[in-house]
Amino acid sequence: MLNLVAVLAILNTAATERPKQLSDRIDSLVSLQYSEGQPGGVIAILSGEKILITKSYGLMDIEQNKLNDMATTFDIASVAKQFTAFAIMLLEEEGKLELDNDIRVYLPKLPEYEFTITVRNLLQHTSGIASTDVLRLFAGLSFDELWNQQKEIELIGQYSHLNFKPNTSHVYSNSGYALLAQIVEVVSRMSFPDYLESKIFIPVGMKSALVYSDPTLKLVNNSTGYKMVEGKAVKVSSTTDYSYGSSNIYMNLNDMIRWGQNFISPKAGNMDIINRIMNPYNTLENGDSIFYTYGFNVRKYKGVKMVEHSGGVPGFRNQFMIFPDDNLIIILMFNNESINTRRLANGIADILLSDKIVEEITKPRIEVEYDPEKVLEFAGNYQMEDGMELSFEVKKDTFWLVLPDNARFQLFAENEYRFFLKVFDAQCTFVPAQNGEVNNMIWHQGGGDYKAIRVENKVLLSAEELARYAGTYYQKDLRVEYPLICENGKLSLSTPPTFLNYLGFDAVDLNHINGDKFLTNKLGVLEFTRDENNHVNGFVLLDVGRLQNLRFSLLSE
């Protein structure tokens, strides 16, 4: 997989560029997002075990006017997941655990979930366990309060509802990796920080690396995290979180380089483990491939195989990329969350792999004329599987998409049945039946195809009918109340202070779709539930990303 020919090819490319020219081109990429005197970061590029280039930018601490350098330590955020996965693989190699065992074999105090969850499900984000970062947000638990591994595990156990049946979907979950760290401790009979230090950090020679699991630990030469607000750097990093498994590993660039070199010539683990990391091997229940292996995503970047993981927490952004067929490793660690490290790493890859990458050429969509009378056959409401409803109408011979909040967008024809929008990248295809009737539609957006069926025209609810949904709703597992009020014929759901502090809003508006389904302006589709007497008794937030089917009950007056 990692061969001498590939090493020489990269070295030859770099030689052609000349070190100074290559350095200048990277500086040019960084300058698109960073200005002198701001918090910045560090970059390293490896060809095999050889260091092609290292770069440092900006300040690690503005107040002390300290510059970033190779000895500056950074919070690597979710890049830490690869160390957790590596620890699990080492224990499996030693015969101390089985990836397809029920996680309750190792963690019997966990809730008895509806379905069996395996260690492999945790590794691949297919467990269905909701992610604690989103749970904390909805529970109103501040990200600035003291948090540790015990609280992390307690919250996971507190919320026992699964997002989905294991191995039927892939949804990123920090909870899964916190549980993997617990499994490491149970199986190894060592603390997670001690296990990583003895089995990974010391063998690889990583002297600065540590798991920040305890407030008594001293962070040496640590950078402060910032974000840019109206051109000024604002301190946003917090050191009050001591949970681990999914994040909270700190190290400097020297150690990240050594970790990268371990993928070429392992001092921890072996080439069998490395090869398993580099190659997708599993599928979901429906046969779809899972491209997340062991703490890494494996995908193609412009035709070139890439194995990577990003990491972001308030104040920090990181990128760790391996191009295994080309022996190229790109490492970025920044203490400025306003830097798009993925875009920057992609730009560096474009330079070094210019002879291999294949640029995707987007064909321009060609607008054709359509028959307004024919398009009238498509008009109506179409409901997708998640309850979201799209409406289509023809006015003055113009075809319109109408969203539940009454936002309107003009549609343009590509052919008789396919239409596209110009204001954002989305298309729709109306699907005729054998008799020519159109009752099905496919919405195309973000690389996905979403089926929808025609439904009856929307019935507008009166202010009196909307008021029947008002009340205080309670999420019993997260122990939090959400008031829902009706004012001026409009429903609005109040959210905990965490939403205002971290997302900038404290309420969401509800727009009626049909029946008991509403579209919120921030949290997707909300559906009310009813009791046997047809009285509203709660609601469900169907999908907020890493948390799905979040159920609330209506409190009795």
Give the helix level as a range of percent: 10-25%
Strand arrangement, major sheet: 21-20-19-18-26-25-24-23-22
Structural class: alpha+beta
Q: Helical region count?
A: 14
CATH architecture of the largest domain: 3-Layer(aba) Sandwich
Number of strands: 34
CATH topology of the largest domain: Beta-lactamase
Tell me what portion of residues adopts beta-strand conformation. Answer: 25-35%
Head-to-tail CA distance between termini:
66 Å
CATH class of the largest domain: Alpha Beta
- Radius of gyration equals 26 Å
CATH superfamily of the largest domain: DD-peptidase/beta-lactamase superfamily
What general form does the structure show?
A: globular
User: Low-confidence parts, pLDDT < 50 over ≥5 residues?
Assistant: 1-17
Please describe the biggest sheet, giving its number of strands, its sense, and whether it closes into a barrel: 9 strands, antiparallel
Q: Count structural domains.
A: 3
Mean pLDDT: 93
Walkthrough of the structure:
The chain contains 14 helices and 34 strands. Mean pLDDT is 93; it is low at 1-17. It folds into 3 domains: 4-128 and 163-352, Beta-lactamase (3-Layer(aba) Sandwich), CATH 3.40.710.10; 372-455, Beta Barrel (Lipocalin); 463-554, Beta Barrel (Lipocalin). It is globular, with a radius of gyration of 26 Å. It has a 9-stranded antiparallel β-sheet, with no helix packed on it. The longest helix has 15 residues, at 174-188. It is α+β, with helices and mostly antiparallel strands and 557 residues long.
Topology of this protein?
Layout: H1 4-17, H2 19-31, E1 41-47, E2 50-57, E3 59-61, E4 66-67, E5 73-75, H3 81-93, H4 119-123, H5 132-139, E6 147-148, H6 149-158, H7 174-188, H8 192-204, E7 210-211, E8 226-229, E9 232-235, E10 241-242, E11 249-252, H9 253-262, H10 271-278, E12 282-283, E13 289-290, E14 297-301, E15 304-313, E16 316-323, E17 328-334, H11 341-352, H12 372-375, E18 380-384, E19 389-395, E20 398-402, E21 408-410, E22 412-413, E23 418-420, E24 426-432, E25 438-445, E26 448-455, H13 463-467, E27 471-475, E28 480-487, E29 490-494, H14 497-503, E30 507-514, E31 517-520, E32 525-530, E33 536-543, E34 548-554
Helix pairs in contact: 2-11, 3-7, 3-8
